[in-house]
Amino acid sequence: NGVFMQETFKVASTDDFIMLRQKERDKKLHTKKMKLLFEQADSSGDGVLDMDEFKIVLDNPKVQTWLAAQELRIEDSEKLFKLIDDGDEELTAEELVSGVARLKGAARSVDFLNFMREDQLFKDAVCKKMGIDARNLSQADAAE
């Protein structure tokens, strides 16, 4: 029985190692693909994408299909640009890589849950400043 447990733990640790290696490979592949997309989109060659460059490439149905295959559906390229951009109205390759990674697949649900948590903390802080019991506000929202 002890040998069985030892072998089970050995296999489990090997599976974890394989899983981590696969995640690292996936991340490298994602980075490579997004940098390739960036290079194709950067028609001016200045190392940043403005809204027009971004929209031209992302409004292409073939690019949309390619991104959908990577778990990122593009419905509005302008909104996507604004979600990824750090506020300077230009995208760097790094912003594109990290922004798309944040928005695709399971990462979306984690970000959404984080947003909901931050929203609740904000509501609580506002209610506290206004002297309102946040629980009463939540009950009023539910009644509507």
Number of helices: 7
Shape: flat
In N-to-C order, the SSE pattern is HHHHHHH
Q: Kindly, what is the distance between the CA atoms of the first and last residues, rounded to a whole number of angstroms?
A: 59 Å
Supply Rg.
22 Å
- Estimate percent helicity: over 70%
Q: Quick one: how many beta strands?
A: 0
Main structural class: mainly alpha
- What's the story with the biggest beta sheet? none
Beta content comes to under 5%
- Poorly predicted ranges: none
Mean pLDDT reading: 83
Give a quick set of tags describing it:
144 residues
Commentary on this structure:
76% of the residues lie in helices and 0% in strands. The chain has 144 residues and is mainly α. Helix 1 packs across helix 5. The longest helix is centred in the N-terminal third of the chain and has 40 residues. The N and C termini lie far apart (59 Å). The mean pLDDT is 83.
Write the layout of secondary structure elements.
Blueprint: H1 2-41, H2 51-58, H3 61-69, H4 77-84, H5 93-103, H6 107-130, H7 134-143
Brief description of this entry?
The protein has seven helices and no strands.
